[in-house]
Amino acid sequence: MSKTSKKQRRLIEEEEKALKKISELQDYVKELREARKKEEDVEILRTLRSLKLGAWDLYNLLTGIQEGTVIMEARPPAPDQEDISEDAGDSALDKDGEDPAGWSGETSLDGPAERTEEDAGERDSGNE
């Protein structure tokens, strides 16, 4: 077996160092992607919780999103609308006197849907 020259050994060492750095950077990028995904998931959960939907309404919403039957529009908040904290969510009605969980499975999330007495009866009987 022949001896490798100093220059060859140095090149091999440099190559190994570079491969090690590449591996470390790939691990770092993987961690960054996982952290970004986690933050996106947290933001999605925050958004869903802010809708203050009942269990079935939330289920219907998520099913509609998966099926592509729900249309969502992003709108800037109204200038006169105050930021509602989580502590203020104890009331069954929002500041306009409407039920924040009034969504009844319609294909649009423009605002609370009109609820019929039949819908209210179904909801009330399901909670007993």
| Percent in helix | 40-55%
**Unreliable stretches covering 5 or more consecutive residues:** 85-93, 97-128
For the biggest sheet, the summary is: none
Rounded to the nearest angstrom, the radius of gyration is: 27 Å
Mean pLDDT: 74
Number of helices: 3
For the record, give the distance between the C-alpha atoms at the N and C termini, rounded to a whole number. Answer: 85 Å
Order of helices and strands: HHH
Strand coverage percent:
under 5%
Write down the overall geometry: rod-shaped
Number of beta strands: 0
Structural class: mainly alpha
What's the number of structural domains?
2
Tell me what you see in this structure:
This protein is mostly helical. The chain has two domains: 1-50; 52-75 and 85-128, no CATH class. The protein has helices at residues 6-50, 55-67, 117-126.
